[in-house]
Amino acid sequence: MAIDPSSPAEFILGVDLDGVVADHTFRFREIMAELRGVDPETMPLERSWDFGEWGIEPDEYAHFHRIAVMEHDMFATMRVIDGAAEALWRLSDAGVWIRIITHRLYTHWGHAKAIADTANWLDTHRIPYRDLCFLGKKPQVEADAYIDDAPHNIEQLRAAGNTVITFEQPYNRDIEGLRAVNWREVEAIVTGLAAQHVGQFEAQLPGIDAGSDRLTRNRD
To answer: Residue 141 carries which DSSP code?
Structure first.
């Protein structure tokens, strides 16, 4: 029987990608270092939202980001943030509806590549999801809770009355309220929220059949 995400018995988690599941800062730094011909260590990972520590001017970011996406396959080559895939599998297996929500279509004339690279990356790293949404204004998407790292998204979502988990990054530490510093904490928070929403919720224990390995096991 098909699962109805609008049912009160379903808990929908809106999950951002960059800075939450995919390590955007690390991969973008690698590409910028290659473009500049410098050691990546000259650009700190502890950076502000506008990358000012890297010497990127506000009007330069879009230019460099387009090069990273279109010429260096950034969306296809980011590493996964530790614990994200395993935690999402446990939550998904327990009944959480995973809705990926990302704003990756800001590269003009590069939408086809952005979408294809994102879908391929999710498959390659076995990230579970039931919906994949590309849009900038996240309050337009219905979810019972969200996890995001971008200060403006968090503020907009909360202003609209949504429950938002701030996934800690250097550029959002001044934001108060619900937050997680890693995916173990995310899983614990979502488990609690889902239990409140549906009345009963039993998540798998960390380390017990994470789910992401089942594709490999099924091929053996």
So the answer is: S
Could you say which of 16, 117, 144, 148 is catalytic?
Answer: 16
**Average confidence (pLDDT) per 10 residues, the chain, 220 residues:** 53 97 98 98 97 94 94 97 98 96 75 94 97 79 94 95 97 98 98 88 55 48
What the block records as the tokens of 124 is 């390659």
Contacts of the segment 65-68: beta carbons below 8 A, 24+ positions apart: 65/28, 65/106, 65/107, 66/107, 66/108, 66/110, 67/31, 67/35, 68/27, 68/28, 68/31, 68/32
- Active site residue: 4, 18, 144, 149, which one? 18
Does this model's pTM top 0.90? My answer is: no
Q: 């960059």: which residue's tokens? A: 18
* Rounded CA separation 195/218 (Å): 31
**3 located within any domain:** no
Cα separation, 132 vs 102, whole angstroms? 8
Residue 16 annotated in active site: yes
On whether residue 149 sits in a domain, the answer given is yes
Q: Are 164 and 145 in contact (CB under 8 A)?
A: yes
Are 156 and 188 in the same domain?
Answer: yes
Domain that holds residue 48: 24-77
- 155 found inside a domain: yes
